[in-house]
Amino acid sequence: MDFLTDSDRPIYIQLSDWIADMIIQGAVKEGEQVPSTTEISVTCKVNPATALKGINMLVDKNVLYKKRGVGMFVSEGAVKILKEERKRDFQEAYVKTMADEAKKLGIGKKEIIAMIERSFEE
Amino acid sequence: MSVIRLDGVTKYFGKKAALDGVSAEFETGRIYGLLGRNGAGKSTLINSVCNRVRINKGEISLDGERLQENDKALGHIYAMSEGVNLPGDMRISSAFKVTGDFYPNFDNEYAGELAKRFGLDVKKRLGRLSTGYRTIAKIIIALSSGAEFIFLDEPVLGLDANHRELFYRLLVERFIDSGCCMVVSTHLIDECANLFEHVIIIDKGKVICSESAETLLNEGCAITGSAAAVDRFCKDMDILSQSSMGGIKSVYVRGRPESVPNGLEISKPDMQQIFVSITGGQEGEGDTK
Fold it and tell me: What is the value of ipTM here, to two decimals?
């Protein structure tokens, strides 16, 4: 599978984001099973240790949990956890960057809000 | 866990040292990438481990037991090499059987299943196979050998894209099922870079890098921009390689600066680029520190 195309980020983070995306988009629902590390490493042709590291990132965030001998499942409340994390990232990656650039260009707060409103209407 | 240890292994062909004081370790439960340019010594290293060539100096051991001339210990190691070590008029099904005589854990059923998945007719004779199918036959035997250590020397030689894809999947499957040690020597680094947990690079018979894949990938970065700006910014850095086109210059440096000035771009190189830069550039020249 060729979703691991971004060479600038470690593979395990890309894997973790890929699973997070599936959960946010509802492709895998809360309480449902996600692909095992074996399936992931075979399908994506990555080292099983890398796949495990990606999965464990989501376990640490309480997005996934392990059922012994069965596999990995999506926790209740996983979507909420992920969306809140993405919102924080959005603030960092987009809003803060935008504000910095706006200050540089001398665009005021009101002007920015007007710009955002225009973009929403388009 | 079992481990094969090479300690100061040296092998001469005439006056030329094909291996020059090589020390390395291979553990079960790991996939290794064995990388090197043509003639770097990859095949000699593999052939030394499985006792196909006699080394001149050094020690090779399996869990502390000397490997040279030790048939019992060698039964834990399977090496798929460039040549076919079986007679050309032998049928593939017989090749499976013969391998099973030497490797008691050879899985004949699994071999048959793999032959089906690759579309290989086991009634065919080895000598009649195309380059691609000869490789496939060797891959099947290696993966079915049941050995604890499987060395694969250029395992995708002549394989088309679909078969390569299938091979990588099977490699991971087999690795997970058996927990064995897989050592893959290849030129197609990009295709399997993500499979490796550990990478060993040899150059002119010496190990010049032995590193976890993650460390290797995070060790350096590429900085690109106008030649003058790149030179100014990178003047105190450890530059591993550089290339330029027109006024644009790209250097690969050790470490990663926190930020770069406007106009310069920073990117993470892939394993192929790292390999090229530490083995001395595409033309075999350049900065080889």
Answer: 0.74
